[in-house]
Amino acid sequence: MNNLVRTTTDPHSTYFKQFLTIGGLVFTDKPTQIWTVLGPCVSVILHSPGKKISAMCHAQLVEKEFLSKHHFGSGSNQYTTTTKNIDFRYVAYSVNYMIQQFLMMGITTNEIHASIYGGAHLISGLTYNIGFENISIACEMLQNRGVRIIVKDVGGEKSRVIRHYSDTGVTHVKVF
Question: 3-175: what fold?
Answer without folding.
Answer: 60s Ribosomal Protein L30; Chain: A; (3.30.1330)
